[in-house]
Amino acid sequence: MSRFITEGTHPETGEVVDIAYGWDCVPGFKPGYFFQVWSRNPLDGEDDSEGLLVNEGFLAGLDKSRLTELAREWSCKLKEV
Q1: Which of 12, 54, 63, 66 is surrounded by the fewest CB atoms within 10 Å?
Q2: Is the pLDDT of residue 81 over 90?
């Protein structure tokens, strides 16, 4: 597993968000990239989601083109892929 942390911008609110992305291979599931976004707004975590806004590819694995698309949508730069 690789995991990188960066910042991005929420496409609807313009707020700064925390982003984690990388490559993972969970036994029994499709290997691939993952992309996760967390809000810094404490109100977004009140529903037990811990502020998690996006959790794509965690078990299903994304391909590189989808990872790049999400990075553009959330205005973040990928350091490595």
Answers
A1: 12
A2: no
